[in-house]
Structures are given as C-alpha cells and as structure tokens.
Write a structure and sequence with these properties.
Layout lengths: L1 H23 L5 E5 L3 E8 L11 H22 L4 H23 L3 E6 L8 H19 L5
Antiparallel strand pairs: 1-2, 2-3
Helix pairs in contact: 1-3, 2-3, 3-4
Length: about 150
C-alpha cells in the first residue's frame, strides 16, 4: 500500500505544481530564484527529455499507457521485492502518470525548473529519473541488499 500512496503523492504534487505555475505565470515568463543559476520558467514541452521527439503526442501517450499496464501486471510480484525497487517503481509510475495527464489534456508537458545549463523540467521528470535510478541500483546490487 505505501507504494500506491507514494505514487499518488507524486501525481498530486506534480499536477498541483503545474496548475500553480500555469495559474500564476504567463507562458515564457521566468522568475530568477538565484539569478543566472536557477529560475522558475514556465514552458510547454511538446517532446521528451531535452525536447527530443517533439510533437509525438500519440507515441508518448502510448508509452505512458504501456508503463501503466506494465505496473498493473508486475504489481503482485512487487510486494515481495526490496524497498528500493518498490519505491523506484512508485516514483517511475507516478512521474509517468503525471506527464501522461498533461499529454492527454493538451499534448504538452508543463516544465518550470530552469537551472540554465540544463533543459527545463518538472516534478514528474525528477520522479522518473529518481525511480529509474533506484530500479537500476536495486538490480545491480540486489544480492548485497538487506
């Protein structure tokens, strides 16, 4: 059950943050938090990470649905796995669903964390990267984990 709660929390925080950004900022607006280092910049991303595969809405929706179906299929097995794999799976799923909601609604993903030397991203993206990292860590070090 904690896996589902973590997944739901990621989705809710992601969607709330995107709603807040869209409500409080105009598209393209940038607010310096630490000038020249970190800004909150509201953009709509039609692609994936780094803007790759721009305007491939159907492809991204299919990938999101595939991740959702895979999670439903593997969920019964996941209950017996170690915590990092459970948490990584919840983060990955929560992030994927957060971005999937955007793609279904508008065809774009709302991004806003802008470190100026990296493409702009959002909370769902952070969850996906952390989730995949935990999954890889678990797979590589499974025998050494308690």
């Amino acid at each position: 059950m904690p896996i589902l709660i973590l997944c739901l929390v990621i989705i809710l925080v992601d969607q709330f943050s995107k709603f807040y950004i869209q409500s409080m900022m105009n598209l393209g607006m940038s607010i310096p938090v630490i000038p020249h280092i970190f800004h909150i910049t509201y953009i709509l991303n039609p692609g994936a990470a780094f803007g790759i595969l721009e305007n491939q809405r159907i492809f991204f929706i299919l990938i999101g649905v595939f991740i959702l179906l895979a999670a439903m299929f593997f969920y019964p097995r996941l209950r017996q796995e170690k915590f990092p794999l459970k948490a990584g799976s919840a983060l990955l799923l929560g992030g994927a669903v957060g971005n999937l909601i955007d793609r279904i609604q508008t065809g774009y993903v709302v991004d806003f964390f802008d470190f100026r030397i990296w493409p702009i991203f959002n909370i769902a993206d952070i969850a996906i990267v952390c989730g995949v990292g935990l999954i890889i860590y678990t797979i590589l070090f499974k025998g050494r984990m308690q």
